Amino acid sequence: MKIAVPKETKFKENRVALTPEVVVGLIKNGHSCAVEKGAGFNSYFTDDAYVAAGATIVADTAALYSSAEVVVKVNAPLPEEIALMAPGAVLISFMFAAVNQDLVSACVKRGVSSFSMDAIPRISRAQKMDALSSQSNLAGYKAVIIAANALGKIFPLLMTAAGTIRPSKVLIMGAGVAGLQAVATAKRLGAVVEVSDIRPETKEQVESLGGKFIVSGGGPVKTEGGYVKEVSDDFLAKQQQDLANHVKDADIVITTALIPGKKAPVLLTEDMVKSMRFGSVIVDMAVEQGGNCVGSEIHKTVVKHGVTIIGESNLPSLLPLNASDLYARNVAAFLTHLATKDGFKWEMEEEITKGSLITHKGQAVNPSVSTVNSKV
User: What string of DSSP letters covers 63-76?
Assistant: First the structure.
């Protein structure tokens, strides 16, 4: 199959969907790869490296899209990019389809079949395809690093002739993939780490990494695919109350809470921010979905009430070489599962295909976007 890799156009995006190393493997499996000129530059992959891997470099974006049987991206294309694709072609990218219905409608209208990398079921045989986890892992690491850089003190306990420096205190809200990597990174740097999560089953994982687990919230919650589905306002109020003193004592707070398809829950109120020591740092990892912290601003680092609030929306993009490498491997494993060199298998009842396929043959087929067909 003819696979195309366009240059990412999203603001502050440095990743690329396929790396030269992965291109080599795909070509060995009988596919051909065309890469837009400069697509890998921000990830430190030159056009020459792609040519050496066997890919063709294409300068004309429209020609790249129109000639492809499969378009692979990190971020979802804009509707006008979908319009450049050949009817019947296949898109593979992050789509977040439940909150991106214009994209779904564009795919339906164009007759493009689309697979969403964020919709791949979290089952054991799909682990090699799990791009959400691979990128969140890097994001959790980077969140601690940028917080440490913004904090005016060191992380570890340090005993000197001039006196003892106490270790920094880091509070991490959420013990998912990103949160657990943040725990591990902060502990390696020598901080005292507390972790809040409304799922009691995460306690063992937190403690295995050296963190202190804090149960917060007003009772049991519903989860699906490892994510919390939804929580009530009363639950959030109880959670904020439980965490108030921990936030007040923290040098750094990192928030990671997301609810798929919905606005991120507010965990840090303005009063909680005010209670923190002058010079403290907050990293709001949910800022692109509305934010866990009152006062965080997307793409910006701001200081409010003496607290530095970092609203970096795309942390994996700050580690583009590693992030691109892992994402490309996820895509290659996914593509190998879905297709051979002769085309897609279209095993419609197979669990991974069924969970990740968003549009097909001019129809929205995924339950998360089942209402789109009637609007197109």
Answer: HHHHT-SEEE-SSP
